[in-house]
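Ticket #284: bound-state structure for magnesium ion.
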Amino acid sequence: KAKQRGRNTREYFNQQLNEDSLRRSQLEQDLFKALERDEFYLLYQPIWSIDGDRIESVEALIRWQHPERGTVSPHEFIAIAEESVLIHAIGKWVIHEACQFARELSDSCKHAPKVSINISSSQFLRGDVEEQLTQEITALKLKGSDLIIEITESILLLEEQKIYQQLESMVSMGVDIAVDDFGTGYSSLSYLKKYPVQRLKIDKSFIDDLESNQDTQSLVSGMISLASSLSLKTVVEGVETQSQLDLLKQFGSPMIQGYLLARPMTGDTLLTLLQKQTTTPAEK
Ligand code: C2E
Ligand code: MG
Ligand code: MG
Ligand code: MG
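RESOLUTION: The complex was predicted; output attached.
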């Protein structure tokens, strides 16, 4: 009987494996058509000052509206795109869209929030991110300081001259560089000395057990102090509850992002929200 069960389990796993790889290769094929079929769009999630009275920046988050499968998470399709040249076309589209939205924000608000753009390591390694950004900034008459570039720790560990030069040149235009998912990648912090970085985004995984775990509290409070003593701006990601927010206030976190204050939303909804904020400060 045990033998029978063993075989069933194995069959089950094999079947699961086949279904997964089938889904993946189908998604990959569909991904090649998604750009020309205009199936991508961006949502924007506000990044707030800790008091929740100001939207300092907004993170552009890509969505794929698949014709049959509905919305596919970027966790799934960005990984697939990164295995081919697709990531470059998608990445370029994201930069263009996000910069256009930055233009729209500047035109419609007095103190427009910055737009924060996720860039994949492979885009950086190819070496044309800085050029794309410069083109958009020039064409749309943006300021570098309207934009933030989010990169992962892993890219900074490659110690490539090409990466250093791209970052340097973006920073000289006024663009901020943010290290995304900070704390999850590697233990070496020496890259903070070598690379021009202005921001850290503390990963959501540290926030999930913040209320229950003393060690996590020490880690998060330590990361916030570290950032502040290095004159880096910090954002804590994935804040979902009031008690997490209260703790982060205690720790001196300057900025937060999370469902507690707002989920990712369309550009139009965000513009409306910003309009309300600037016209009715007395109601707060
Ligand atoms: P990320 O850059 O770390 O973005 C934060 C993710 O956390 C987003 O997921 C956001 O919706 C989610 N999030 C924010 N607040 C909360 C919260 O309070 N609770 C929970 N449970 N989640 C929260 P999303 O939009 O699904 O994106 C996932 C990842 O996909 C991003 O992680 C980023 O690595 C990647 N990604 C998204 N858009 C792009 C893009 O345009 N280009 C590239 N290269 N990667 C992207
Ligand atoms: Mg990000
Ligand atoms: Mg992040
Ligand atoms: Mg994250």
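RESOLUTION NOTES: Residues 180-181, 201, 237 surround magnesium ion (ligand 3) (CB under 6 Å).
TICKET STATUS: resolved
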